[in-house]
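Exercise 7.
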Amino acid sequence: MKLTAIIEESSDGWFVGQIKEFPAALSQARTVAELKRNLLDALQLLMETNRFETEKNYSGKKVLIETLTLN
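Solution. The predicted structure, written as tokens, is:
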């Protein structure tokens, strides 16, 4: 799976961005390379938080858990 970073340079020289496919994954940095790393960290945290919240919502319920792979 490939992701798309939307990057903008602010007037103060910082780079700000988000992941197009996951708009809630936002970050900023002094360099584009650092921003790209920060965006992936933000996505990781977003996914962990979503996973935790979803597990809480289904706690105690009879559900099937299946792994999916996106190519």
